[in-house]
Specification:
The chain is mostly helical and 164 residues long. It has eight helices and no strands.
C-alpha cells in the first residue's frame, strides 16, 4: 500500500478554497466576521496538522471537516446552558470562598485535582482553566479528540465528587 504525501498548501490553494469555506461557515453562523474568523482558524489548524493528513479524502473535504469542528466548538462555547452553568458555578464558588476563605478554597480545589490521573488533570487544566478548544488541547496532549472527551468527562466527574 502506497503512502500518500501530505498536501502542499500554497497561497493559491488558500485563495481557491477560502470562498467555499467562507460560504459554508457563513451559512452556519450568519455573521460575516464570525465566518471569517472560523475560516482563518481552519487554515491555521490545517497548516499545523497537515503532516497528519492521510489522503483518505480530498483536501477540501478535510478542510470542511476541520471547519465543522470549529463551528461546533463555537456553538458549544456560546450555548445559553453553558452560561447558566458558569453562573451557578461562580455563585457556588463565591459562596464557598465566603464560607472558607480564598486560601482554604484553593487548598481544597488543589487537593481535588490531585485525585485525578495525570492525563485527566492535564485535560481539565487545558480545557477548563486555560480555555483551549478541544482540537488544540488534544493536539497539545498527543491524544485523539475522543480520548480527550473521555478524560474530561472522567476528570470533571471526579472533581465534582471530590468537591461535594
Amino acid at each position: 500500500m502506497a503512502t500518500l504525501a501530505a498536501p502542499v498548501i500554497t497561497p493559491t490553494t488558500i485563495q481557491e478554497l477560502s470562498p467555499g469555506l467562507f460560504a459554508f461557515a457563513y451559512r452556519a453562523v450568519r455573521r460575516k466576521e464570525d465566518a471569517e474568523d472560523l475560516v482563518q482558524d481552519t487554515w491555521i489548524s490545517a497548516l499545523r496538522t497537515v503532516p497528519s493528513f492521510e489522503g483518505r479524502s480530498s483536501l477540501r473535504t478535510w478542510l470542511v471537516s476541520i471547519l465543522r469542528r470549529r463551528i461546533a466548538d463555537r456553538f458549544r462555547r456560546e450555548r445559553p446552558t453553558d452560561v447558566l452553568e458558569e453562573e451557578r458555578f461562580a455563585a457556588d464558588s463565591s459562596s464557598a470562598e465566603a464560607r472558607l476563605g480564598t486560601h482554604e478554597a484553593a487548598r481544597i480545589a488543589n487537593r481535588a485535582m490531585e485525585n485525578l490521573t495525570e492525563l485527566e488533570r492535564r485535560a481539565v487544566t487545558l480545557c477548563d482553566v486555560d480555555d483551549l478548544d478541544r482540537d488544540e488541547a488534544s493536539e497539545a496532549m498527543g491524544v485523539t479528540r475522543g480520548h480527550l472527551r473521555v478524560l474530561l468527562h472522567r476528570g470533571r466527574h471526579k472533581l465534582e465528587a471530590s468537591l461535594r
